[in-house]
Amino acid sequence: MKRSRYLLQALDPLSKLIAVFSIAVLAMHWDTPVPLCIMLLLLTTTAVFGAGMSWSRLSSRMMFITVFGLPLFLITALTSPAGEEYMEWGVLRMSQDSLLYAAAITLRMFCMFLSSLIYIETTDPQDFVVMMTTRLKLPYRIVFGVSMALTFLPLLEDEGRNAAEARKIRLGRKPKGLWERLSIWRGNLVAVFAGAIRRVEQTAGSMESKGFGAYAKRTFLREVRISAGGYMLMVLSIAAVAGIWLL
Amino acid sequence: MAPWISSSEPVRQDCGIPAIKMQNVTYAYESGARPIIDGVSLTVNAGEWVTVTGPSGCGKSTLSGLLSGYLPRAGGGIRTGGLKVSGLDPATAEIADMAGLIGIVFQDPDAQLVQGRVEDEVAFGPENLCYPPEIIEGRVTAALRDVDLQGRRRDSVNQLSGGGRQRTAIASVLALEPPILVLDEAAASLDAAARRRLLALLRQLHQHGRTLVTVTGRLDELALAAQRMVVLNAGRVAADGPAAQLLREHRPLLGRLGLLPPGAPATGEASLGAAAPEIQPGGSDAVSGAADSIAGPNPGPHRSGGSPLLEIAGLSFAYGSKTRRQRRTSVQAMEPAAVLQDIHMSIREGEWHILRGENGSGKTTLSRLMLGLLQAPPECIYWRGRDVSRLSLYELAADIGYVFQHPERQFVSSTVLDELLYGPRSTLRLRPKENAPGPVLRQARDMLRLVGLEGREQTSPYLLSGGEKRLLSVAACFMLGKKLILLDEPTVGTDYAGARLLSELCRKTVAQGAALLMITHEPEFFAGENTRIWTLENGRLREE
């Protein structure tokens, strides 16, 4: 069996899940930008050196969340309770406190997104199913649902890329004007959704034809063990949350 | 090479109950729509091997869907009449009962693979039926050995070629060891070696008492290995009987429906072998005489010349290999195995190239590099003298057309006619409400007539049969005056009539001066044409 090149790829899904929950708890606990900024920095380092994500892949994913993060920052900054020091840009007025709070909220979202991303990138969906079903005794139908969602994310990404490529090839020239670009973008979106629906329907049919859901329980060929490193990660995560919370 | 077959203990089936019994079954995808299956009555006895055949769009795949219960249970639609599989109605039976009873392999592997890794995919069914891990392990090992995928056991299915994924899909059904096995165009994307292996495996399974139903639009050696043949036409049974007898007595019908190679004798005396192109090693040079004439007469020398449209010089490529900059900055570079090594090739106007090779040999990778769908290494591929690595997809797509391996992936319109008009409308920069000019409309209607889709103008491309979708995708590409057209496995799932139409289209396009590069594992379909044949083997390209 191939050895994992990166530390987090070698760890079991359960211990990593506990670490992700711990990060989420800490991120919710802090509401100032500095500790969240440090956390984001640590998570970025972990993504590159612990999970083996390339800088380009990481930046493209972070660009995605920035699309949601930027409006969140602006809306929070404009609507949060005002402090004393005001900054003015025309009709817009913001306090320094509201800006800092908006930054913290946005960084919190980035931290939670990045920790989940690291989890998805380093976890084999089938390992996740085995662990949740055999260790946590969760119903396998529900766990498979989550696992399929993990599997479908890269598939949807593929579907989107294919749709965009196909349209570019079929169009045979650069789109002209905003209307044409919007229409192509809409077409891509429809293709991705239609493809996703078709894929989900086909997959459901295929799973059923192979007996999925026939019995309340199922067996697994694969066995996933928790290593010493996994136990250590769980203990450290819980201890870190408890310690920092009390501080 | 004889396959190592381990699969399957002899199967005991209840001899009193037919394996499949259909009584006046009718099925339509929507209420009030034309039935796809129209009053079919059919009995398949346990242990029988039946080939269900018919032209593209005759209802073969719908029949498979009905047998598995996918239709109407998950796929919707309205079924009437009686259908029993070993005494159970697939539409209402318990999931566990059906999964242990009937296994179906469909043409599109992506529609049936549900897990990430090859091993997980094959173990999925037995795990659902609660077999203990040691039994599952034995079944997985045997099934993977049957399809020659032992070495890829821990690979992701997405890393496999189309043929590799299809073999995984076959293994995942074999691991369930169902007494009834239905293969719906399951060999369509397999290369010659894999088809030979599958044929040997099916013979073995049949000897062990399995009931086999092979569904196909071509009467090739795999189809004719069955003792009985059922011919469907427009959703009805057009003929049913021993395969040898039907070949003798209904040869004109079979030829008319496009199920036989056109070169096969028109009347009775022909043996099975004369009708069926044999599955032999080596592709085109090993195909039977009958298949040689599929494409019709040789059009004569093509008028190629001038400087090359596309030139490849010393191209090597590996997935995940680092760029020059990455190589400079990283000391941990671990270069993956090369998919393509030192490729040299040139394509000129009016030339028709065929690129063949076994599943996973890198054919699709090469075509994607040519069009810039994969980042080509610098100074290796030139389009009309310009480095492809420096050209955008838009710049390349202005002159190069591409027919995808999966037709659905290139559909961009909601009707068949709009699909054909999409390219010309874009070239003419027409607004959405502007009508296409008369000559373009005429060209589109001529094209529809040529590919047998006349009268289906307003049908959704997604509702066409597999073969029809493929012809539409090719026709849409040929509507434009591209200088080079790349076709990725355009014959997969088409019947002989479809392949002949495809040949005609290609011949016309080449005669008009365009160049073609056709990627196929079935070069025999174009054996009579004036082509240059390239073989990709172990990442290296050589011209025949």
UniProtKB/TrEMBL annotation, chain A:
Compartments where found: Membrane
Domain of life of the organism encoding this protein: Bacteria
Protein name (Swiss-Prot/TrEMBL): Energy-coupling factor transport system permease protein
Keywords annotated in UniProt: Membrane, Transmembrane, Transmembrane helix
An annotated GO cellular component: plasma membrane
Transmembrane domains' residue ranges: 6-27, 34-55, 61-78, 99-120, 228-246
One protein family per Pfam: CbiQ
Membrane topology: Multi-pass membrane protein
Broad class of where this protein is predominantly found: membrane
UniProtKB/TrEMBL annotation, chain B:
InterPro entries according to UniProt: AAA+_ATPase, ABC_transporter-like_ATP-bd, ABC_transporter-like_CS, ABC_transpr_CbiO/EcfA_su, ECF_ABC_transporter_ATP-bd, P-loop_NTPase
One GO molecular-function entry: ATP hydrolysis activity
Gene3D superfamilies associated with the record: P-loop containing nucleotide triphosphate hydrolases (3.40.50.300)
Subcellular localization, as worded in the UniProt entry: Cell membrane
Superkingdom of the source species: Bacteria
CDD domains in the cross-refs: ABC_cobalt_CbiO_domain1 (cd03225)
Membrane topology qualifier: Peripheral membrane protein
Principal location listed in the UniProt entry: membrane
UniProt-listed Pfam families: ABC_tran
Keyword entries, A-Z: ATP-binding, Cell membrane, Membrane, Nucleotide-binding, Translocase, Transport
GO cellular component: ATP-binding cassette (ABC) transporter complex
Region (Disordered) residue spans: 275-307
ABC transporter domain segment(s): 20-259, 310-544
Coiled coil: none
Family membership noted in the UniProt record: Belongs to the ABC transporter superfamily.
PANTHER family noted in UniProt: ENERGY-COUPLING FACTOR TRANSPORTER ATP-BINDING PROTEIN ECFA1, HEAVY METAL TRANSPORTER
Protein name: Energy-coupling factor transport system ATP-binding protein
Organism of derivation: Fontibacillus phaseoli
